[in-house]
Coagulation factor XIII A chain
Amino acid sequence: MSETTSTNEENKLPLNGRRAIPPNYSNDEENEVPEMEAFGLIPRGFNPRDYLRVVDIYMFKEPQEINKQEHHTDKYYNPKLIVRRGQAFQIQIDFNRPYQPQSDQFWLEFLMGRYPQQNKGTYIPISVGGALKPGQWGAKIIHRENNSIRLSIMSSATCIIGKFRLYVAVLTPYGILRTRRNSATDTYILFNPWCQLDAVYLDDEKEREEYVLNDVGIVFHGNAEDVKSRSWSYGQFEENVLDACLFLMDKAELELSGRGNPIKICRVASAVINSRDDDGVIAGSWNNSYDYGVAPSAWTGSVDILLEYYSSKQPVRYGQCWVFAGVFNTFLRCLGIPARLITNYSSAHDNNANLRMDFFLDDEGKVDTRLTKDSVWNYHCWNEAWMTRPDLPVGFGGWQVVDGTPQETSDGMYRCGPASVQAIKHGHVCFQFDAPFVYAEVNSDIFYTRMEKNGTQVVENIDTTRIGQLIVTKEVGGDGMMDITEEYKFREGSDEERLALETAVMYGVKKQSIQDTTYQPQTDVDMDFQAQKAVLGNDFKVTITFRNKSRNSYTATTYFSGNIVFYTGVPKSEFKKHSFSAKLEPSSSSSFDVVIKSSEYMRDLLEQASFHFFVTARINETGKILAVQKAVMLEIPALQIKTKGELVAGKEASVIVEFTNPLKQTLENVTLRLEGPGMLRTIKKQFGRIPMNSTLTWEVKFTPMRAGLRKLIASLNSDALRHVYGELNVQIQKP
């Protein structure tokens, strides 16, 4: 007796005084669906075989068949049916006898999760009727032959996305007969940028091909004067990636009923992409030591990261901004939300969102690292996702900023967005979510402030143009760079820019006016700074140029400081100090060179070979201070990739990766990674060491499965040298 009660208790739902059923946020869990749902007592002579019975369901789910072709889902490496919402798809049902519309009655049922409910969109009964209405659930018979019928099924343009279970139910006088649970008929429904009624509708076919269907992208890094690029494999169609992306929404505990809304999905995803406060996908590390994990620069794409997380359920180590953005882009494109990866050069990480980055100078005009808390990132990557914003006034739909890199908390969690790009441009930062933070990232000013002995702050210099000076993304249909700075801000100094700033201040962005501080700039002398293109391991020179526009002679005491920095602008060490006195003749320019030797920087170099130079000069006659700062990136040698022989689908081919060590030292603990989306899953190989000037060669054999233009991407990682990449476009012929 006791045994039966305990099993009954287990089957009961847990009691909860607030809700009738537990929260429903697992796409994977299922409920039991009865095959025979009786209306009462069943007479003894009843035989279900006497009634219309489903023998087989055919889903047209092969990549070359009508559904995946028309729904642009033929690239997904997934055997099940994948369709996009708001667009008709076809299935065929084989019965045990011809279907008779006058007497037979059947309907379809799509179910999701453990507690399907019709009002939550997780239980969807569809009766077979006449004409289909656009963007609403419905089904109609388009062909009848012998015992088979073919149905055209329309899904709602607002339905939740994820994996549905399909049942066919037949009405008999004594109860409902259902098909058995069959996972082969499971149907994934995704967002549909091709459907005008969908919140993510995008009207340009070339843009849809880029922002939804392209599985390779470009990450722009370096700095604004020296833009560098590398390829990233999004791999949204690779095996198990779709299931991994759906699992992220389960992990974020997003109710199934909220999964038709791209705004909600982006917001929870921006939190679950990073591991802070929810054990999300990637653990960030910015300290140059990556024990027990992979260095951020070694990843070549998102697939390995997502699949490792999907199987281990533990954060994957390690990522930095472009890794978070790369994985986020995969997630969005995989679910059908148009998305692109953005790089903002000279990105302000403003700790108190007051549009003011403070760099404090000491008495001599040198930067005081103790007091300076704000940092300017050489670049920062985030994402834009395309959607309507019915929660905002008209005009703020379109591209929305979402950022998975953990920087600041938003509503108590590390997440950011979606914030309307249009709202940021016009200063309407009152509109959710996190617009003031993004506005500060692209619009802050740099204040060089000197602390007097009595504690007063004297502003010596203000740089209004450096932050957010260049914002870029990959061009549509090519590997080039598209400048989108004007989507985020009006031209510097224009009336519109001033108005946008006033609007942002009105809506609560803190901006200290210059009147609060004493500020008289030195206007008749300009100082500029140029660095020679430099290759890692070589000496290079930098040039400081003064332009004296006045009729006076001046002398300038100049301090030059070279720092090795993380790409986030945070200094690791000062490797070069140099001061000199410059004589400035009236109405003329004078230049001064400083040589940087490789022996000075190689020992402390960080992985992105990034320097930050500060030059401050005090004009002795007036006491005024000039200040300029600049990031310089060294050229890092590339990996060479080549293929041997002809590349034909289905035939074994080989690819060769080569690298020559350019440094005056041996490289230790060398790891190579190689991948080709849709062609070659990531392979890794460890090499012990590469002596100076020697060349490493690695040959990999693989069999490409599909014809077409693909890309091979490789990375090299070692203790002394990281951020080494190579790529090659390859054309795979039809057999």
Summary: The longest strand covers residues 571-584. Residues 411 and 434 are 9 Å apart (CA to CA).
